[in-house]
Structure to design on (586 residues):
């Protein structure tokens, strides 16, 4: 760690929680000279500027990425193909690109379709950082501290480019893991996307009743925790569900089969099966919790 | 509030979290002279004695309840019928009885079957206090402070007996609500029992996979909250599910229909319906959270 930052110019598309925290993390580590931001709304860019997340608002994406050391695409996944297509012709040979998308198969497909011979520069990433709040105002330099970031490197990536992207996330304090894109999407369909869908479904089911107030008035701490993720961003989760549709449908079907089995047990009053199922779950949940840092 | 406690002798069946906290709450309020405990294991009774939850271990239930002012049945719901049948012949004319069961239709049915002409003495109650931990060691004098207790009075109850049971729970700091037993069970099937079933099901579905370690290793804060209730007590939740089988099956079927609709939307890539569903859920979840004390 010398006096010279590892990265000179960093360009960030999407200066919300994910992109903003990445910028603040690199700045806190002293590893970036200049951060240039792009975004959909001028107000969020102005806010990011005021908060010191970015040093400059970008106007010409092609020009800005041509001499950037690092580009982060931290927009909703659905917007990534267009951004990739826009910057591909201008990416410098030494510019590395990463992203913050919660799904990876679709992002990799977009990169393959849009980046052309610049594909080796792109090292996909998924930072696992809870995003109940969103927007530049929620960004924090320590958001990634001790959190996992999953890289899903491509066969076309050079070892050097993977190492440079890894280094950027590590400067933000993240713990790096690697998975294949398909493996990544399957895992997160099960442990993140499906629980979100289930939580949204439960609250929706209550909310549309004529007497929903009665139900909500007796909801307590179990409901509170189970439904915390139902307060997540609808547009973001729409995009994640659509982007990871295949794996999520698989997981949803597995889960529905599981519910069918529990329904049958309940219907026939099979307490032994209910208890055995609950017991396996409790044992696994406790072991998982004991393993958490 | 004078110097004389409202209750002389209180008899508690089941000196775990619910019963123990009731005893400690009444003691902290100075509203009980003596607490006598019954339980399934001598070790939990000894622990309750050591912790000052009970003053004495009871041996003859009939004799102890004959001159008690108040009896609390705080065992798992499945054990209540036998206890009611055992004490019914001995209950004094002035002894009031309440319970801490999470379901009410079945407890009321048991009371109707077992209490005979002593039925008017029994005022069913459900204290809404999270029970992730259980046992006497988890009992706290302030467990019910500011928490809801739902009474489901019977047509046979006198106004006086309802008022006395209400008063006991209020001395523990609880906020009293009243519902019909069927209404109670429907509401809690939806906001408590179903979420528990869904959370157990998710963790079980992951735990039985060959590569469950891979999945658990990437589970993060959303999973943590969604599955906190999957660490709940299997036997207790087996009993609750069986006791509230009819309402829970209804709620489960409603929920499965909701999941089917989301699956169809996902299958056909209907982002608008997904987003609309998530949006209704988020709005309702946020309004609920804003209403919580």
């Amino acid at each position: 760690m010398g006096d010279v930052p590892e990265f000179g110019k960093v360009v960030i598309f999407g200066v919300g929680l994910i992109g903003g925290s990445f910028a603040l993390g690199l700045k806190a580590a002293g590893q970036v000279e200049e951060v240039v931001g792009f975004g959909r709304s001028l107000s969020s860019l102005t806010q990011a500027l005021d908060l010191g997340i970015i040093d400059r608002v970008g106007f010409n994406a092609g020009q800005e990425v041509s001499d950037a050391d690092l580009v982060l695409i931290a927009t909703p996944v659905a917007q990534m193909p267009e951004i990739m297509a826009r910057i591909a012709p201008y990416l410098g040979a030494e510019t590395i690109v990463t992203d913050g998308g919660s799904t990876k198969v679709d992002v990799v497909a977009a990169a393959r379709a849009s980046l052309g011979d610049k594909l080796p520069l792109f090292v996909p990433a998924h930072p696992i950082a809870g995003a109940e709040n969103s927007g530049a105002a929620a960004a924090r330099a320590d958001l990634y501290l001790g959190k996992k970031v999953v890289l899903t490197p491509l066969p076309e990536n050079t070892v050097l480019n993977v190492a440079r992207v890894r280094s950027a996330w590590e400067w933000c304090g993240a713990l790096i893991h690697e998975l294949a894109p398909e493996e990544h999407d399957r895992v997160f369909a099960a442990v993140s996307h499906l629980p979100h869908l289930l939580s949204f479904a439960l609250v929706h089911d209550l909310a549309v009743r004529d007497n929903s107030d009665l139900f909500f008035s007796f909801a307590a701490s179990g409901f509170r925790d189970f439904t915390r993720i139902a307060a997540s961003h609808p547009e973001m989760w729409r995009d994640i569900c659509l982007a990871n549709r295949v794996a999520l449908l698989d997981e949803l079907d597995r889960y529905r089969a599981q519910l069918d089995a529990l329904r049958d047990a309940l219907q026939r009053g099979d307490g032994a099966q209910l208890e055995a199922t609950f017991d396996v779950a409790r044992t696994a949940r406790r072991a998982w919790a004991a393993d958490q840092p």
Remarks:
- Chain B touches chain A through 88 residues (CB under 8 Å).
